[in-house]
Amino acid sequence: MKCRRCRADAVIELPQHRTAFCAECFLHHCRQQVRRTIEKYSMIGAGERPLMAISGGKDSLAAWDLLLDLGYDADGVYLGLGIGGYSDRSGEYARAFAHQRGVKLIELDLATDVGFTIPEAAAQRRTPCSACGLSKRHLLNTVALEHGYTVLVTGHNLDDEAAVLFGNVMRWDTEYLARQQPVLPGGDGFARRVKPLVRLGERETAAYCIIRRIDYQVEECPMAEGNRHLGYKELLNRMEERSPGTKLEFYNGFLRRMQPLLDGVSSQDKGDLGSCGRCGSPTTGELCAFCRLTDQATDPQHRSTPRGRRGRKRRNNSRRQVVGAG
Question: Which residues lie closer than 8 Å to 152 by C-beta, 6 or more apart?
Fold first, then answer.
């Protein structure tokens, strides 16, 4: 099999594009996909410094590497979630990459800086991933605004977006469908959130990291077992095997044909937004969902797991670590 671009021996085949690439041309392909996505959706403006949300996995590290190679002065932010050895190893990969590339990594530890871990917070929710998702959305946005970043970049790839879209379509959840965009606008207490990897799948980001020799957390989150989106991914992968390109066409078709029809839905909630009485974040209630979760996770009367650190109080942001360039 030959590389479509230079006719050298190919190292990876991409059935969804009906093509194959050698190592160097595959890296070029990834950079072009990300560059075109950023430009098409006006994700990062001239002079803006994006903040990359880093998990230590292949997607976020590949995205950070791609942004840097494309010339963006991107810093990173890592949240320590307190999920045992999994979080410890994830943090090590994030720090190693930041040191290797000589870039800044802001660190926030949930247990130390907020007062609970994801396992503790998950005890208050029916699904552990909902507590994790809520915490990450709130804290990443807070860190971005506090440090003066207007753009928050996440490593959501095509597989992630297609699985979420599949689930939302199955339930016809128009509120969530309206927000499923490559760019969520900033303002009113929110940093702009962008997803430059939406045209690259998990297989591509993994291959990118291997070729670039980027070490990453291979282990899946131990708390994600039973997550329904993993089931959606499995179903879509089977469809992709039988009909390559299905995921890309499913997601792009939604953006082209359906998403414009949902613009009105996406703006309905903003008129009722106020400020959280505790942290000041945008919310429709007296306290935002994250502050309510914090109360539940740190109050011994709410605890339903013996692993909780009882009596720990929230601490201020002075304990946040910033790993400097180099």
Answer: 50, 51, 53, 140, 141, 144, 191, 192, 193, 194
CA 3 – CA 11 distance, rounded (Å): 8
237 lies in some domain: yes
For every residue of 264-312, which 3-state class applies, written as one string? Answer: HHHCCHHHHCEECCCCCCEECCCCCHHHHHHHHHHCCCCCCCCCCCCCC
Total structural domains within the chain = 1
Domain of 292: which CATH number? 3.40.50.620
Q: Are 91 and 82 in contact (CB under 8 A)?
A: no
Q: What is the residue whose two structure tokens read 């989106």?
A: 229
Beta carbons of 53 and 136 less than 8 angstroms apart:
yes
Based on the number of CB atoms within 10 Å of its own CB, is 127 exposed (0-12), middle (13-18) or buried (19 or more)? middle
Domain-embedded: residue 4: no
Q: Give 148's contacts (C-beta < 8 A, 6+ positions apart).
A: none
Q: Is residue 1 part of a domain?
A: no
CA dihedral 249, 252, 254, 256 (to 10 degrees): -120
| 5 within a domain of the structure (yes/no) | no
Closest CA to 70 of 120, 23, 33, 35: 35
Q: What are the average pLDDT values for consecutive 10-residue runs of the chain, which has 326 residues?
A: 96 96 98 98 94 98 98 97 96 98 97 94 79 94 96 98 96 92 92 98 98 96 86 96 97 95 68 85 91 87 44 40 54
